[in-house]
Amino acid sequence: MTMTAYVTDFVGRIAQPCATRIEQFIADTSFDRPTLVLDTDIVARNFAALRAGLGHADIHYAVKANPEPRIIGTLVRLGCHFDAASRGEIELCLRQGADPSAISFGNTVKRASDIAFAHRAGITLFAADAEEELEKIATNAPGAQVYIRLIVGATEADWPLSRKFGCAPDKALELLALARDLSLDPVGFSFHVGSQTRHASMWAGTLDRVADVWRDARAAGFDLTLLNIGGGFPAFYGEEVQHPTLYAASVMDQIARRFGDVPRIMAEPGRGMVADAGMIAAEVLLVSRKSHDDMHRWVYLDIGKFSGLAETMDEAIRYQLVTDRDGDETGPCILAGPSCDSVDVLYEKRPVALPVTLRAGDRVLIRNCGAYTSSYSSVGFNGFPPLDVVVI
Amino acid sequence: MTMTAYVTDFVGRIAQPCATRIEQFIADTSFDRPTLVLDTDIVARNFAALRAGLGHADIHYAVKANPEPRIIGTLVRLGCHFDAASRGEIELCLRQGADPSAISFGNTVKRASDIAFAHRAGITLFAADAEEELEKIATNAPGAQVYIRLIVGATEADWPLSRKFGCAPDKALELLALARDLSLDPVGFSFHVGSQTRHASMWAGTLDRVADVWRDARAAGFDLTLLNIGGGFPAFYGEEVQHPTLYAASVMDQIARRFGDVPRIMAEPGRGMVADAGMIAAEVLLVSRKSHDDMHRWVYLDIGKFSGLAETMDEAIRYQLVTDRDGDETGPCILAGPSCDSVDVLYEKRPVALPVTLRAGDRVLIRNCGAYTSSYSSVGFNGFPPLDVVVI
């Protein structure tokens, strides 16, 4: 079967029925608070689609995207590996049956005691981007494999990463050398193209820059074996994205052309693995106008920035909304959350079009909310409980 | 005793020793995760200071600022009233012994079933800013007292509120009339000058505008008895603020000059009641430079935007930091949190000056963190537990 045939078959077979399974569950259920409904079959489908494109690369699911234990358990059974940000995420993966050798400790900022914990638990692969981090790893996980995270400049991602993670190329080789001096095993580099990089073609510039550093390191005598390509695999939020298999295959093809035969490639999809596996059932609490000449209605939901929709910050992620009144005439709305906090406004700069018939008590479904929602939720800001999660 | 004599005595007597009690506790304690240490004696002191200035006004503590049960219990015993944002906050206050008549349901966006709950619990005072909200209150809390929240334009607050809450003056009288038609009891107006309004003189313009609406309403035959002046009472974050008693007395004086003798005045301090009652004990996880020519160091703490310091969003609140190396030479640092999230950077546009000797493992104290920290904390983003809270 060719790649194209596989993808066609794949999409035709299961794309729509799964989305409908969540919608059917929500339609049949009454909720007394905002609830994220997750379908692990969709996670399994996404894993298969990414694996089909990523070939021999190891998929390390970025646990932070959604640490729901049943998602982790599903992925363990499928042979997925894991990228953990903390001791808590490592413990979660181990509890769900992950082998320590399948977990990398990918946060470049780690507490010394957490490195020691991971080392005792059998984890052997750690990220670093600074001298002090390498020293902490050498002390607390002697002999461990380390990869150096690179900053590789501006990208075309919907949500470009800041300079928070990684070191500039001018330090990369020195850090490899320091790791070797500290009796660590410097195996390679990692980078990140930026969250929600919607087309594989956007990887080209970043890969060019990483390949330059890779070549310099090998020329300097470092026998690199690992290239960690990070995340960036996109989810659908209304703007066209490539099919994950085609996307991943295109990225792998670009890597092969620049890096040749790399023994070990790691990819860390998070959003691309789980975003479309979840939908939030929410409710309209109030529809109002502020004055007689207000151009927009204000629509207040029972979920907001502090109860799950943190990624609406700066209106970065634009979720798709579904209501029972879709089909009625629409008008522009400012969408806001339920808390007594003036920053808890979801979309104001670019209002959303919602039915003019919408009113308090109406249900609103928020599509593709499986990533970066439930775990961002506050413990109880304004006395609202955290986002409820149901796995079907 | 004159006001001035009282204030002088007050400041001289208890301002410093209480701050030292928290610092002493932190110095004597080892923490294995970021921890907010709260001193309820300071809350009691702040209540007394505000009451001395607010005179006959009722103080409704804005529970959302810090819902720690022992803070609520302390304030119940002192005779404080409460402003609740949700059913959860109402239940909390009742559990701590508050009388329902001392609780107002101040969120203008309420779930219908929560209004019914509050009504059953004996709460009689509700906020509204829209027709649909009044209809929900009339249905679920028939006969209740309501106040209409006004939008009163730009302020000089450090953190001005958006248009999220309130209605424009052109709708205010119509809403009073609608409330009456719905057999509710429209008792007055509320407004908010904006969080962290640092000087009492900044209230003048807002009070002028509210007084205009107040006069119009009385002229239209509404027998208003309640003026809810909201919050805005400032906390100290490094920029000079007035003493709370002088500040509150000045606000009350401005109100008297504009409104005359108002039977019932409510004030809703949150930040001003609890901010300086808390200090966070945190730890440096990493100090690094991104490249050889990096002008700034990056300092990563074990606490960030998602584990308690949400108010660093847009660098709005600038917390004061204390380290054991204070006194050493300092240099500019970008301060970031521990999560694998590029937006988890606390101060970058305006870097902070920290000792050049600072390194991983060092303790960092964050001053005046009693407000809007613990309850904003995420349930477990990146696998990090929520901010721990200790009350001394």
Automatic annotation (TrEMBL), chains A, B:
It is an enzyme of class 4 (lyase). The keyword Transferase does not apply. Belongs to the Orn/Lys/Arg decarboxylase class-II family. The modification N6-(pyridoxal phosphate)lysine is found at residue 64. GO terms for biological process: putrescine biosynthetic process from arginine, via ornithine. It comes from Oceaniovalibus guishaninsula JLT2003. It comes from the Bacteria. Its cofactor is pyridoxal 5'-phosphate. The active site is at residue 340. Its EC number is 4.1.1.17. Pathway: Amine and polyamine biosynthesis; putrescine biosynthesis via L-ornithine pathway; putrescine from L-ornithine: step 1/1. Keywords: Lyase, Pyridoxal phosphate. Transmembrane segments: none annotated. The keyword Lyase applies. This is ornithine decarboxylase. It catalyses: L-ornithine + H(+) = putrescine + CO2. PROSITE patterns: ODR_DC_2_1 (PS00878), ODR_DC_2_2 (PS00879). Residues 43-275 form the Orn/DAP/Arg decarboxylase 2 N-terminal domain. One of its GO terms (molecular function) is ornithine decarboxylase activity. One of its GO terms (cellular component) is cytoplasm. It holds the Pfam family Orn_Arg_deC_N.
